[in-house]
Write a structure and sequence with these properties.
Layout (H helix, E strand, L loop, with lengths): L1 E2 L7 H5 L4 E2 L3 H16 L3
GO molecular function, one term: zinc ion binding
Protein name: Phage holin
Pfam families: HNH
Length: about 45
């Protein structure tokens, strides 16, 4: 299960079913990597 908006440890967002979507593993990994990269390189 993928979280549409990253929960970043927020339990309410983690368990919010409206924030869930199904993705194949490849798409999920790509999305997660992209989101992690954006956080690291924000200025």
């Amino acid at each position: 299960m993928d979280h549409i908006k990253p929960h970043r440890g927020d339990p309410d967002l983690f368990w919010d079913e409206k924030n869930w979507q199904t993705l194949c593993k490849s798409c999920h990994d790509h999305k997660t990597m992209t989101e992690d990269r954006e956080i690291r390189y924000q200025y």
